[in-house]
Structure formats: structure tokens, C-alpha cells
Amino acid sequence: xxxxxxxxxxxxxxxxxxxxxxxxxxxxxxxxxxxxxxxxxxxxxxxxxxxxxxxxxxxxxxxxxxxxxxxxxxxxxxxxxxxxxxxxxxxxxxxxxxxxxxxxxxxxxxxxxxxxxxxxxxxxxxxxxxxxxxxxxxxxxxxxxxxxxxxxxxxxxxxxxxxxxxxxxxxxxxxxxxxxxxxxxxxxxxxxxxxxxxxxxxxxxxxxxxxxxxxxxxxxxxxxxxxxxxxxxxxxxxxxxxxxxxxxxxxxxxxxxxxxxxxxxxxxxxxxxxxxxxxxxxxxxxxxxxxxxxxxxxxxxxxxxxxxxxxxxxxxxxxxxxxxxxxxxxxxxxxxxxxxxxxxxxxxxxxxxxxxxxxxxxxxxxxxxxxxxxxxxxxxxxxxxxxxxxxxxxxxxxxxxxxxxxxxxxxxxxxxxxxxxxxxxxxxxxxxxxxxxxxxxxxxxxxxxxxxxxxxxxxxxxxxxxxxxxxxxxxxxxxxxxxxxxxxxxxxxxxxxxxxxxxxxxxxxxxxxxxxxxxxxxxxxxxxxxxxxxxxxxxxxxxxxxxxxxxxxxxxxxxx
Length: 560
Description:
Structural class: alpha+beta
Largest sheet: 5 strands, antiparallel
Distance between the termini: 49 Å
Number of domains: 4
Shape: elongated
Strand content: 5-15%
Radius of gyration: 35 Å
């Protein structure tokens, strides 16, 4: 049964249907009923194949940019999903530029004045009406505060929230339909993926949260002198306007080659990579969008992270698994990487462990000794998610975000130092990261939590012991043993006991016969004491019978 097309979303259904038809997913258009949103002359013919009319992957990025901010962000998300898209499309989407035409400066000034409640001339000493950058969610203006500080002002596009909410509502209807009626939806959990995307995008629209992120990352990365995070100006910040410290520099991708030659790119790359590993594996919060457009090289040759709207969060247990996975990849231990990745994800009914382990082992072994010029560690993580999807393992969103982060980070490090060895950097930093995690777990807060648990245990212990002793005294203690087949288990134990008993009896006969050999009797056999010889013969017959029974029984069990 096709989905019910809501009139208020008809334009969005039409745009999405055209996109799917163009790139060869006529089956989804027909299965969901989206073809009803298309004009009759654009509806796919029944005799047409499913091959895309335009196989150029780069064109997909262009088409998503034309559809607006929601689809630009969705394309950036899909650039991490190797389990859904072919690698050529992923590469095109990973370079999707979040740059669009700016909106009128008069509108930007009006938003600033409405949000801050003061006229522009009263707020700033100088304000440049011409924006220096424009993205899908907002644009940036340069200004000077009354105290002389240079600042960058990020202004959100008008009505962008309402448009994104409407886009997400239409996409959610389609995602839920796919989950309920298609194999692809059941395998990849399209609705769950879209819900995570919605949370991330709505957080990115809250500039007050981004200002908090700036403060958090300035604190977390304060030990790295070569990394700069702009300070937020909280008095000039609202949910739609973000004012932060101005940093003189230029995008990594715009730095002239001559200047890059003069830099110690390997040192910068190592510091940057170490800082991100700390964010992910120690702090539990990391900058999830370090693409080259968000990473600046300052005038004093430091790295500046200027856009922290998109962040990821990692739990304690996930941190441990990610650290194990990265160490296994860097050490070339494919089976360990496969086992760790499998434990992180949700295994489906068609999980193929042998094929899954073999493919990941081959992937890790192939990249073991590669330098940055030959291997992207982010690409390896992304490939692991692809292999997982193909073999029945649905990986958590944290792993896909990690893959995207490392993929972008690899591109930045490649620009700074083409020969930077990622594997070596991971191995060198693994020990310090482990120590940091242990020290963090020994913090006063963790110690207090442990003390509270110990106090609760001590208080509950007497009561639990009393209940246990009462049950023992009343003979009410029961032990439950879960076995495959209790009857077979008891039968096996009885057979073992019978064989041990028979063996002990035969041993006793042999020992008794040996002792009687020294006793002279009138009854002899072949000149030896008769009773001793009879005992020896009986022991021999019994031993042969026992051996025959063991061989016969074991052969029958092997046949079963």
C-alpha cells in the first residue's frame, strides 16, 4: 500500500521522486507511490530499465545543492554510509560544499537587531554588510566590538527552521514506509537514521549550543598550543546569532603550495590527529565535521577549528570499543578488528560471520603498512561499515560519524603532509590515551560514585546474608542449571561414574593378584599360585570388555 501524499508536502515529494528516478531508483518511486507526485510526462515508463540516466556521481552533489539545505546536510550524512551508497557516490558527496548564495545584508542586519534588541550602530564599532562566507544554514559577517575586539558574526537564514522541519517531516514519512515495507528499510533502519539526522541538524540550528561547544572545546583542547578555537561572545549570542572571536587565517585548501612547503606539516598533522583522538576516545565529545572548509591555517601557522555546530557524542563503552578497533586497524589485526566491529553493531538474522571476518581481515591486512598517501584510516572505517551492512551487521551511528570525521581529517592531514603515517600516529598515542582514560576513571567524581555503590552494598549485605542463611536453614536453596538436555547430561555423568568404578575394581584385582603371587598354595596354574592367576585373567577380561565398550560407544557418538 503506497504512502498517503500530503498536499502541503507535494513539492517536496516531486523533487525527491525526480531525484530517485534520475539515479535509477524507479523501484522506490513506484513502491512508495511517489510517482503520483510527478507530472504524467515525467513518470517512468514500465518498460524502462533501472539504470540511472546520468551515472555521473558528481552530478548527485549538484542536484542535492539545488534542493536546499536539508538535502545538502542529508548528502553529507550519506557520504559516510558505505553500506548504502557505492564508493563513487560517497566520494562525490564527501566533497559536497556547503556554500550557497548569501541572502540580503539588510535581512541579516534586521535579524541581528531583532535578536539582540539593539541597533547595529550601537552594537558594533564597525560592521561589514557584505558577508565573507555564506552556507546553507547561515552566513558570516565581520565586525568590530566597541572595545576594539574583532569578531565574526554568524547569522541564521530567515525561515530556515520552518523549511527544514517541513522537509524532515516529508522524509520521515517515506523512511517509515521503507522500514515497514521494504527489505532495504528493515536492513538499514531508515527511520532511525533519519531521526539521528534530525537531532543533529536541529542542534546545529541552535547557535547558543554552538557557543557552548566552542567553550567546551577550548577547555578540552587547551593543552594543544598549535590548535586554536575561537572564543564565543555570549552577550552577543542568541539561538539565531552567534558572535565569536575573529581569527586571521585562510582555509587549508586555499593555502598556497609555497607556504605549505615551508610548514612543518607532519608535526601539525600529528597534533591535529592526536587532538581528535583525545576528543573521541577520552572526552566523549568530538567535532564531527572537520572538512577542509572548517579548518583554517592561521597567520602564525597554527590550526584553527571555526565551525563547531556539528558534534558527536560517544559513551564510555563505545569509547573502549572504538579504541580497540583503531588499534586493531593500525596493528593490522584483521580478526580482532572484525570481532570488535561485530560486537559494536546489531547482528541481523542473515549475519554471515565467516565471510564478514574474512573480508574485514583482508581489508585491514591490505592497509597495514600504508602511509597517508596510500590509505585513509577514515576510509577503512567507512569500508568496515559497508562490509558490515552487506553481511548482516547494522553498525551504530557513532561508528558512521567516526568514519566521516576521520575521512575528513585524513583529507586535512593529506594537505598538510602527504606522507603522514596515520597508523604510526595511532600506535604512538594509544598508550597515552589509555592512561588518560584510566586517570579520568579515577577522578573524584568516579571515586564518589564508587563509594556510594560500596555504601549501598554494605548496607544491604546484612539483610541479604540473613535471607540466605534462612533459606539454608529451611533447606530452600535451589540451584538452577541450564543445559541443552538435562537427561543426556545425567546419562553422560552416570556412564562416566560407571567406567571409573569399573576401572577401580580392575585395578584392585590386579593389585590383589600381585600380592597373592607371593603366597604359596597347593593350587597352582603353570607353577604359579592359582588364585593369583585367576585374578589376573579376570582383570584382563574385564579390561578388554571395558575397552571394547568405550570404542563402540565413542564410534556410535561420532556417527551421530
